[in-house]
Fold these 2 entries.
Entry 1:
Amino acid sequence: MDRLISKLLFLAACSSTAVLALIALFIFKEGVPIMAKSGLGNFLFGSNWAPLQGQFGIFPFILGSLWITFGSLVLGVPLGVSCAVYLAEFAPKKWVNVLKPAIELLAGIPSVVYGFMGVMWLAPLIRNNLGGPGLSILAASCVLAIMILPTIVGVSIDAIQAVPRNYKEGSLALGATEWQTMWRVILPAARSGILAGVILGMGRAVGETMAVIMISGNATAIPHSMLDSVRTLTANIAIEMGYAVGDHRQALFGTGVVLFFFIMILNIVALRFARAKS
Amino acid sequence: MRRNTLSVVVLVICGSLLASGPGCSRKHHNIITLAGSTAFQPFAEKLAERYQAEHKDIHINVQGGGSAVGIQSALAGNADIGMADLLELPDEAKALNSVTVARDGIAIIVNPQNQVRALSPTQTHDIFVGRITNWKDVGGNDAAVRVISREEGSGTRSSFDKLVLGADRLVSAALFQNSNGTVREAVASDPSAIGYLSIGLVNDRVKPVSYDGVTPSNENVKMGQYPLARPIFFLTKGQVAPMVRAFIDYVLSDEAQGILEEEGLIAVK
């Protein structure tokens, strides 16, 4: 019986990997021919996206995804980590009981609601004070920064709390201040956990589609500043899939292939970075 | 413990068998499938609902997907009727029978704060290809023009491009929204934006501008004075089944055309 159960569990483990393999296979099968047809260089580094005229350059979307992901991390990581530090180490118990569930609640808000708030409040704010179309990299980064907060805060709190108590006691006993202890002892010890949270948050930022479609403006031109409108890889697929047939449809699957590698490369770089430091 | 796990497994298997059983056996024999144009989809659903209320034995299945999907699924036989809202049907659709069931006008809209009330065809063309980039060149305030278009593949987009842009390309700085509703919201919230959408969906959050001196309205399209309009086609392949024929006849009937008119489209009769 035990062996049967373990076989069943093995099968379950295999099936989830098999699903991944099948998805990858399907995306590649649909997307690779068009990449070969228009030339990999033209596909990746072409700046003209006019699928009905046979031009499939997705470079602006790659830049768009990079900018928005980068922007959301720049805004979201310091906020998230400082929030986690406060909640894990300094906050009084009753504040923790209010703030932590409140932050976790952020994760439960549907992304279309974030997008709507961005369109109604943030975009006009940016347009009136900073110029540009409002629907921009900056707006999308701000909204995504808030969307990735629960992930970063939650994982970071766990990481900080997992640091052995005697590290802190030892540091304080040696005469270090609370701040020195936090900055020099606890955060370095919790780094790998915090980085895991950041990578998870980054994954969410890259993959987010609905909110980004609503607040990034979806322009197909190469962005020149944080105030320009861009389209991300995910948005390109979601916006046009409904209508696409033939080469156009394949080009969207090609976008999916690029997104696949994009996420893998980002993850590998992030993991390397994490290992190199510790 | 062991017995528990086993019974759970058995329960799950039985459950899944039960769940799939009734779904398979409940089958309509008289199904009409429509697919295509997202612009016409809500209207098709409304008409289907009315039609099914009178014909209990027929089930009408309305799917979206866009005009291109409408043409493809009619060609492939996946749908009995393909819906397309294009100015001209592409060459591959020449093999299909097409009936125009309604027409839909396209209004050019700006923000209510914008001073501009009228645009000539040349001005509109120049704005959308990026030759005019400031509202003051067409009689408005000194503010940069923000062009909002629809995504590639949309029927509204391709009709608009053909009617207004001709052979020229849309300005590369254009923003894109993927539905009539989001175009309207984007223009409503941005004082210097310009966009276009179906006439029936214009409301007081945005201001339609007159094109070539004619106000965009269904009456003006009907009288042939307002040029920005496109037909909505029902596409069928080869010999049409009698029940499909009957539904198309219903859509062309005075009753159904009246409903379409009430909902904001332009009747063909």
Entry 2:
Amino acid sequence: MSTPSALKWFGSREGIYYLILALLLVVVLPMALDPFRLNLVGKYLTYAFVAIGLVMCWGKAGILSLGQGIFFGLGGYCMAMFLKLEASTPEATAIQSTPGIPDFMDWNQLTELPWFWVPFNSFAFALFAVIAVPVLLAFIIGFAMFTRRVGGVYFAIITQAVAAILTILIIGQQGYTGGVNGITDLRTLLGWDIRTDNAKMILYFVCVGLLFLCLFAAKAVQSSKLGRILVAMNAQETRVRFSGYDVAAFKIFVFCLAAAFAGIGGAMFTLIVGFMSPSFVGIVASIEMVIFCALGGRLSILGAVYGALLVNAAKSGFSESFPELWLFAMGALFIGVVMAFPNGLAGLYKDYVMPLEERLFRRTPKAQAAPAVAPDAPAQPAPAPKKPEPVADSAKADYDPMLDHYSPEKS
Amino acid sequence: MFDGYTTSELMSIFAMQGFAGLSLFSVFVLMALGLAIIFGQMGVINMAHGEFMILGAYTTYITSSLFQSYLPGWFGGYFFVAMILAFLICAALGMLIEWLMIRHLYHRPLDTLLATWGLSLIMQQAYRSIFGAREVGVELPEWMMGAIQVTDLVELPINGLLVMIIALSIAVALYFLMYRSGYGKKVRAVVQNRPMAEAVGINSSAIDRMTFALGCGIAGVAGSAFTMIGSTGPSSGQAYIVDTFLVVVFGGAQSLIGTIVSAFSISQAQSTMEFFLSGSMAKVLTLLVVVGILMLRPEGLMALKVRR
């Protein structure tokens, strides 16, 4: 084959899925929507970061975290703290009793900047913190839990408790965090006004770019040996442990990875929406994030993006016109996804649309084209399966139903 | 945090806050017992537990208004009727839910969590549509008002005392049901070894349904009892669910005694710290300590000793 492998990948079925998503996000949506709606889509995309992390963590490795909102919130708060400090110049806050500190601190009788706010004067530090703070917390939680083999339900409940702790802390410490209102009235990023339509457009594209970086990072992890160990661990943890792998280390890694994605998402959320508040951090928000991932398909990172987009779009649409119906719909979604289609949209696609496509286009990659399914051999009585899967393939199909069927690397 | 208090002052503060914490204790025990049998015995995480509790509370509310308009002479005793009704209604609904939903999800505990969360959203919205978003309270009969003076500092309100008595009697009744009755024996057999239990003729799916219904019924009684000490709104169930799960996990999921002990220690810690710190900081500290201890002892305080 003379084509470089990267180009070949873009021509493969999986590459086409990525291209379709890219086209949708970069071309179709910006052309079809007005700036306000596009900004909303940008907001939904920030949740997609969390959903991708959850696919890695819950779908692949079987660790359900009900506290992804914490990491989303920490990333968001780190960014918001930098923006707030930039917005609170001594001139802009001249009417306060202590000029130069954020307004909510002044309302809460603080006279100087708390120590942990000081480093956020630097943009570089803020960018570093957006990823480092969530990852650090995830490492602490993960290290404490996984090395003691706490998993499954217990892990879920404890992450939920951590989410509760953090929310209470943020709401209670009004002087340091802005309390229930959160950090509001953010204006500029390094002197660039983020409230204009033009800036929102640019932020949208930055968000899409980062999303694809995360998608590729997640893809790299899941197609590496590490990704396979994660899947093996989900199925038979003890066997992986007895094979000599340090199960806890892998779990900590994937949990930290998910936290990093969520942190990036949170920071973009702050930039796109223009404020950060505890209502995006708590237990309810965290559980909703799980449904984004579950609806898209807990095994598919692309599905997670569509899940986040669809659930949030439906939420906005429903709650604008019928606010009571939304909670019913959301509840039904939770039950439906779990009971009727546990692999979400990606699973439905794989079960219903892909066979149809197969029949219409007969897209059989050269290396897999077995003579049994050649269209010009109808007389052959041999079984003509719809999907000619080599043995190695069907074994792999368990771990990624949607994407890995046609990935070129194993052909 | 103890600066500026003498030892005797500290002692009386602890005593006072300890009595205050007892009502929180009964709230925890009532909610956690129902959860503990569902989670500990069946491995199902019921996120809609709070909503079953609210259902019991609304049942009590309706019963009290019915008594007020049709049987004013019997008003003093409505509460006991309401409690039985709440148990029956919640248990029946629990059975239905188990049949429709939960029985398909055994062995997938994380999925029961999501599905029951969906159920809780639907139930919450249903309450909001039927009863309105405002909180409702019931009128207490005369004999429940007032308080008993214990010492100069400590007085116990009768309604709080009654909730405590209900909590403890349910705990005792549950103990006898689980450890001294044929049904309890079957439940424990199914928990420990399902295929073997089936092989000796225990109908394990019937046991599952009964246990789920029992847990929901206890939630209903809990809701009924709560109406005596506070008002009820569509979303008040959700406020307790995380605390309650923590109580159950902290106590050791399969141990009823552990649940009671952990409810007691968590409520006392929180109530005592509330005196010295703000309410939210007390809660943060309590939860942090609980999470910290759980990291050291993942199986909870009183776990069954099993080889893993």
